[in-house]
Amino acid sequence: MADVETLSISVVAGRGARAEAADQSGWAHLLEHMVFKGAGDRSARDIVEQIEAAGGQINAATSYERTSFQVRALKGGLQLGLEVLSDLVLRPTLDPEELEREKLVIEQEIAEAADAPDDRVFDLAQSRAFAGQPIGRPILGEVHTIAIADAPALGAFRAGQYAGDRLVISVAGAIDEDEFLALAETLFGREIHVEGPANAAAAFTAGFQAEHRKLEQAHTVLLLPGVGACDEAYFAQRLFAEALGGGMSSRLFQEARERLGLAYAIDAYGESYAETGIVGVYAGTAAGNASRTAEVAARELAALTVGIGDAELNRCKAQLKASLFMGRESTLARAEQGAGQVLLFDRLFTAAEIAHWVDAVSAADIRAFGIRMLDAKAFAGAVLGPRPALKAGEVFQRALFG
Question: Which CATH fold topology does 6-188 show?
Answer without folding.
Answer: Cytochrome Bc1 Complex; Chain A, domain 1 (3.30.830)
